[in-house]
Amino acid sequence: MGAVWMWARSDLRRRWVATVVLGLLVGVAGAVVLTGAAGARRTASSYDRFLRASRVSDVYLFTGEVTSEQLRKFANVPYITALAPAQTLQIQLPNGDFPNVGAPFDRRFGTLVERPRIIAGRAANPRSAKELVVAEPFATQHGLRVGDSYTLRSYTPAQVDALKTGAFDSFPEPGGPTVRMRVVGISLLPSDLSLSGARGGIVVLTPAFLDRYGPRIGSYAGDVAGVRLRNGTGDVARFIRRARAYFGSSDSFAVQPLGESTAGVTQSIDLLALGAALFALVATIAGVTAIGLVLARRVDDSSRDQDALRSLGLTRTQRAVAVGLTALPSVALGALVAVLGAWLASPLFPMGLAADAEPDPGIHLDGPVLGLGVVAMVLVLLGIVALLAWRTARVTTSARVPSHTTLAARAAAGLGVHPAASLGVRMALEPGHGSRRVPVRAALVGTVAAVLGITGATVFAASLQRMERTPALYGFNWDARVLDTKIRPSVADHPCTVEQSRLARVRGVAAVASICSISTVLGGRPVTAFGLTSILGSIEPTVVEGRAPRTAGEVALGAHALSAIDRRLGDRVSGVGPGGPVDYRIVGVVAAPRFDDEFSDPLPVDDGAFFTGAGLDALDDPTDIDSSVEWLVRVDPRDDPDAVLARVERLRGIAGFDGGPGVQRALTPVEIQRLVQIDALPVVLAAFLGLLGLVSVGFVLVTSIRRRRRDLAIVKTLGFSRRQVSATVAWQATTIGIVGALVGIPLGVAIGRAIWSSVARGIGVVATPDVPIVALAVVAITAVLAANFIAAVPAWAAARTRPATVLRSE
């Protein structure tokens, strides 16, 4: 093996610069792949780790007014590991909003249960009545910073009791204590990332505040307790049964499992993790292609030495080992750079919502992912090197094997195109043989992969933009929701089957429907239900699959709600109405609209249920103060929507609760807003793929010019000018770009559509991929132009070929 080592060392000394450059290129590509893989794992686990670190409640128990002795006895249930009671308070903010406010009875809330992460300032002193820690969403919405003062106004118990009985048409001025608080910290809890976080999250005051002001402040929901269970969600069902038996007689009794508020967060983070994983997968395929091409050139450079090695008596195996040894330093350097790069780039992940959930942000070394990733990378690269070295070891520089002419090259010649074009097409598509072999297939695959990735990212981005611009796709299948204060007295008995509306007489209104909403139980699961009754024209919910309900015995559910009750289209499900169980047939999957309600959190798009008005009326209790009815309006497409809705808004009595707007346009769901957070990922991936594609084209052009100097010298001898030689290389690059566009764009469109459809179904909206023809035409043109841009230097070098020198050396 002495001759093997001697030749390998000599080759490395001669080509050490190429070895280092190759190692760096391998390292950069490997770092991108490992960063994406580690980022996907870190993203997927971020929220679960946040939940554990925050000791979040498995259920929130609303008990009404109970004694501490009752809570103490209930907390002795064996599967309850911690119970922290608090009292809800009716507080009004300076801007008139009503946040979710609670004050704990003791220090258990905030330590044993619901321990917040302080991201600025410090925790509030539990013995101080005027120190306030606000959630990050609340601080952002109200422009608060640590050290600011903030005034809270409150309602007296008498005012709250009067509001419960409907004594006021709207909220009166607060009559309870007005307290000027000092913001000492900004915190983050898992609930702040949920849909409730969109309304500012929960404001938690101190036990000292409750002791000092609590008796003078009213409460709508009474007491609430955060409860942690021994087996988490596994104990929720029996906990609900036990709690209902113990506290069910209270008017305010309710149990809210953690899953109801975290489903949207988990779904969004899963989407971000999937995006990072797809990024890593596509980057792996493209990286292996590009690096394989570069390694092919590095290994094939040794083909001219095969005759010399053979004359020294080396067998084919020994020659392959000698050639392979020259690539090992590049692989080793690349592995080191990849690990170092992935470690330094780790703060780039998680992204978006997952970055907020990450309890340990900053540089992170994911040993399992980086370790297994580097081992896999090294094994793959060694396999490529071994295959290339074994193939190179059989090459003899004196061999002259006739090359096969491709169909495209024969077609170009048959059409009578210029010889420069015909030769360029052949150089792009025919690899050649022996020492003149060029890895054209790898270059074509690399170009196709780059165009495919860019096309897929373009389709995904266009589909997301279309989703944002089309409210009907995510549940708002009308132009506006109208709140009419004059309708309430007339629908006391049957609020879901209103048959008349003065809005139908407004000029420019094409369709009107009443929408009734209640909180009910369907299939044993709490759900927000809507009932639609068309009055003018036809208004239906956004249907994702199946159809909308048409009779009183039919219902359409959100995708998550359907899965949660373990039903499918065509199955039957029961609800509980005032007169007993009511049976319905499931006829469709729908998207639920986001409504900006004063006292309710936004509904997930894939949750909720839609009935006809008569169908929901069977479940509605007319005495339930939580039921409500509004109007849905669709404007005639021939009219100006702004002008028509302005006419509606000018009607007397059109107003929201407490003086808010009476006409509400479409609101973008939180899920769509969070989806926008991965917008940067397709762009980064497209840029990375484009760079690798340019590397592929550049290397094949440089290699082609070096190995086909004899062919270029001959055509120059036959009369080719420098311009024609440059044109030959330009045609070679153009052919590569055209092939990449012709193959990559259709595949990219198919993959982009499939990914978007999967994402859309995952969040419960209508999957309508958008294929932007103009943008894809730009991608095709850019692919050709970029290939020609890269070909400029090799074309200049080819044009300067000196035939006499080349032919004499050959």
Task: Walk me through what this model shows.
- The chain has 810 residues and is α+β, with helices and mostly antiparallel strands.
- The protein is built from 26 helices and 21 strands.
- The strands form 3 sheets. Strands 12, 13, 14, 15, 16, 17, 18, 19, 20 and 21 form a 10-stranded mixed beta sheet that branches. Strands 9-4-2-10-1-11 form a 6-stranded mixed beta sheet. Strands 3, 5, 6, 7 and 8 form a 5-stranded mixed beta sheet that branches.
Which helices and strands occur, and which strands form pairs?
Elements: H1 2-14, H2 16-54, E1 59-64, H3 68-74, E2 80-88, E3 91-92, E4 100-104, E5 117-121, E6 131-135, H4 136-142, E7 149-154, H5 157-164, E8 178-188, E9 202-204, H6 207-213, E10 223-229, H7 236-247, E11 254-257, H8 258-300, H9 306-311, H10 316-325, H11 328-345, H12 352-357, H13 367-392, H14 407-414, H15 419-429, H16 440-469, E12 480-482, E13 509-522, E14 525-536, E15 542-546, E16 554-557, H17 559-564, E17 572-577, E18 580-591, E19 609-612, H18 613-617, E20 628-635, H19 641-649, E21 663-664, H20 670-675, H21 680-707, H22 709-717, H23 722-763, H24 773-790, H25 792-799, H26 803-809
Parallel strand pairs: 4-9, 6-8, 14-19, 16-18
Antiparallel strand pairs: 1-10, 1-11, 2-4, 2-10, 3-7, 5-8, 7-8, 12-20, 12-21, 13-14, 13-20, 15-18, 16-19, 17-18
